[in-house]
Write a structure and sequence with these properties.
Strand order of the largest sheet: 1-2-3-4
Pfam family, one: HSR
Number of strands: 8
Keywords: Bromodomain, DNA-binding, Metal-binding, Phosphoprotein, Zinc, Zinc-finger
Helix content: 40-55%
Shape: globular
GO cellular component, one term: cytoplasm
Oligomer: single chain
Organism: Equus asinus
Number of domains: 4
GO molecular function: DNA binding; DNA-binding transcription factor activity, RNA polymerase II-specific; zinc ion binding
Number of helices: 20
Distance between the termini: 103 Å
């Protein structure tokens, strides 16, 4: 009988340990998932964050290179990091937190300390305990299980905390997390989350059971713009998100949609959220929100993550990298790279080899021309097909990096303008001189 009792004790002890371990793991995972925005906001530069994840094989070499390319294309580092964390969420494991809160990262990104403390605080206060998820006091307590299985009462808390400690030891090499005695008090799940950074560009929002991420820039464009991305990846307006959360009868998204436990109305009043423009009638709908910025047509569009303009794949110059999730348009890349430039003679600029900087500037100039095509640059008549085809040839050659020098590109464009009014050619030359910082000369210089 003693042997049977011992076996029963061992089985019950192991079963309880497994439950505690699983609940602790799930709680830590949920804490990580809910704080991806805060973690992203804490990362101000790619190195050493991306390199550390790549070296420890949490992300593939391709994912690392894609993230670096996005940074070089001037996609905000916080959005790059959020995308990486979203991918890591799919294969989450505790060693990831060890890499995230490594000594190097904590030194390079001081804002991580507050997030780290939120994990530490959750453990020491019992937020990650079994009682945080179970609200059924009728179930046998740990002490009751102990008396049945033969585990001494004094060993009960020690065993429980030791398993939590073993699991959390993998999070930080220095074992800085301290485990306090788990509390059995109920904690309201409706408590406000003080860890939400309301200044962040992307905010976690909820409505009933619906969860999503609110993009402030999209909200600025009006309530009819799909500004919330759901957990499933679908884009929704505020009203659609409200309905999705089971509040279709409310029709008051400012109160029903919440962030960090607070209604969006509070965030707007406190200045954390922009007040979206009022929509008086359907005719007042924001223009071009679902149209290509170049041709003004609808269809399969790709959104720039910096300015939120949308483009068809082939309308943009160079063509949109459709496989890249985080992508910036040529206008934004030029805007971010432009600054004080040393002036040069026009002849010097024309003689330049077509390097990456010159390529970007030529792409920018040609894209501006294409944006004018649908308005007034070329009349929409059959005889203009030759001119439009000429522009397409220039675009094709530029996309293929077929211009050895700036001069050849400018010469081809000059030929396109020969059959049109001088004002458009003058506009191009003005843009050309501004983009390449050409100094005015006393002598007349030609683009050809």
């Amino acid at each position: 009988m003693a042997g049977a009792g011992s076996d029963f004790s061992a089985r019950m002890s192991t079963e309880y340990e497994n439950i505690e371990e699983r609940l602790l793991y799930e709680a830590i995972f949920r804490h990580f998932r809910r704080h991806k925005v805060e973690i992203s906001s804490a990362i101000k530069k790619p190195f050493p964050f991306l390199e550390g994840l790549c070296d420890r094989e949490f992300i593939t070499k391709k994912m690392y290179e894609d993230a670096q390319d996005s940074c070089r294309n001037l996609v905000p580092i916080q959005r790059v990091v959020y995308h990486v964390l979203s991918e890591l969420e799919k294969t989450f494991d505790l060693p990831l937190l060890e890499a995230l809160f490594s000594e190097v990262n904590m030194q390079e990104y001081p804002d991580l300390h507050g997030i780290y403390k939120s994990f530490e605080k959750g453990i020491s206060s019992g937020d990650f305990s079994k009682s945080s998820f179970k609200e059924e006091p009728q179930e046998p307590s740990v002490s009751e299980l102990s008396s049945v299985s033969g585990v001494p009462r004094g060993q009960e808390a020690k065993t429980k905390n030791s398993h939590a400690s073993d699991m959390m030891d993998t999070v930080n090499p220095g074992n800085n997390f301290t485990l306090g005695k788990s509390t059995r008090q109920r904690r309201s799940r409706m408590d406000r989350n003080e860890n939400v950074n309301f200044h962040s560009e992307i905010l976690p929002v909820t409505c009933g059971q619906a969860k999503g991420m609110l993009y402030k820039r999209k909200l600025k464009r009006g309530t009819l713009v799909k500004c919330i991305q759901s957990e499933g990846g679908d884009w929704m307006t505020l009203r659609e998100f409200e309905v999705n959360g089971g509040h279709e009868k409310s029709s008051n998204w400012k109160l029903s949609v919440r962030c960090g436990g607070r209604p969006l109305r509070w965030l707007i009043e406190e200045g954390f959220l922009p007040k979206p423009p009022r929509i008086y009638t359907k005719k007042k709908k924001l223009e071009n929100t679902d149209k290509c910025a170049v041709c003004l047509d609808e269809g399969r569009l790709f959104c720039c993550y910096s300015c939120l303009k949308t483009f068809h794949e082939d309308c943009h110059i160079p063509p949109v990298e459709t496989q890249r999730i985080l992508w910036s348009c040529t206008f934004c890349r030029m805007s971010m790279s432009s600054g004080s430039q040393q002036c040069h003679r026009e002849s010097e600029v024309l003689a330049r080899q077509m390097g990456p900087e010159e390529q970007l500037k030529c792409e920018f100039l040609l894209l501006k021309i294409y944006c004018c095509v649908e308005s007034s640059l070329f009349a929409k008549t059959p005889q203009n097909n030759d001119e439009l085809m000429g522009l397409d040839k220039i675009k094709k050659q530029l996309n293929e990096q077929g211009y050895p020098q700036v001069k050849e590109f400018v010469q081809d464009l000059h030929l396109i303008f020969q059959n049109h009014t001088a004002s458009y050619e003058a506009e191009f030359e003005k843009n050309f001189k501004e983009v390449f910082a050409i100094q005015e000369a006393n002598e007349n210089s030609s683009l050809v």
